[in-house]
Every structure is written in structure tokens, then in C-alpha cells.
Design a protein that fits this description.
This protein is an all-alpha fold. It has one domain. It contains six helices and no strands. The longest helix is centred in the middle third of the chain and has 25 residues. The termini are close together.
């Protein structure tokens, strides 16, 4: 069970960090795939980079828990972090963004993270 937790945690942590690095380095390019049109304004790139920094911190937090070797706590963190893509999906749908991206990217990400979190949190007790 521990190697499954580590694999899931590593994969999701690495993906979150990668997305964050893309937002920091190429914010307007990657933001186009989020599901909302790019906002107008002079400071758009700065605001998008803030999202990148937060993604990087989320990913490194998850990797820290993986390194500590506690599958149950990796699961708890995944459950907690699953709220983020749910929020993204709601914001996209509420603002008439891409339904395909809201459901196909953000909702599926939340489902995967929540499922992995439940398995790791409750499976680690057995």
C-alpha cells in the first residue's frame, strides 16, 4: 500500500508543480487551457504567476507528505486538495467558461484526487 501512496502522491505532486512552473514561466500561454478567457489588463501575467506560485507550494506540500512515508496523511492531503479543482470547475461554469474543460479537466481531476484520497486514508488503516 505504501508504494501506491508514494506513486500517486509523486505523480499528482509533480503534476501540480509542473502546472505551477508553467504559470510562472509562461502565464498567458498556459492560462488559455484553464477554461476561461484571458482577462484584459496590464497586470494579467502577474496575477497568473500568483496562481503558479500557489500550485508549486501545493505540489511541494504533497511531496513532503510523500517523503514522510505516511500513506494515510497523503490521502488526507489529497482529499483536502480535491476542493481546489472543484472550486475551479464551479468558477468556470458560473462564468460561462468552457463546460468541456470544467468537466473534462477539473471535475475529473477532483474525482481522481478524492478517490485516491479515500483509498489512501481509509485503506491505510487496514
Amino acid at each position: 500500500m505504501a508504494w501506491i501512496a508514494q506513486s500517486i502522491g509523486l505523480a499528482i505532486g509533480a503534476a501540480i508543480i509542473t502546472i505551477g512552473l508553467m504559470y510562472v514561466s509562461r502565464p498567458t500561454v498556459v492560462a488559455g487551457s484553464f477554461g476561461l478567457p484571458l482577462p484584459d489588463g496590464l497586470n494579467v501575467e502577474a496575477w497568473l504567476r500568483l496562481k503558479g506560485v500557489r500550485d508549486i507550494v501545493s505540489g511541494t506540500t504533497l511531496l513532503t507528505f510523500v517523503a514522510l512515508g505516511e500513506p494515510r496523511w497523503v490521502g488526507v492531503l489529497l482529499l483536502s486538495f480535491a476542493v481546489i479543482p472543484v472550486g475551479d470547475m464551479i468558477v468556470i461554469l458560473a462564468n460561462k467558461g468552457s463546460v468541456r474543460t470544467a468537466l473534462g479537466v477539473h471535475a475529473l481531476t477532483a474525482i481522481f484526487m478524492a478517490a485516491a484520497g479515500i483509498i489512501l486514508t481509509y485503506g491505510a488503516r487496514a
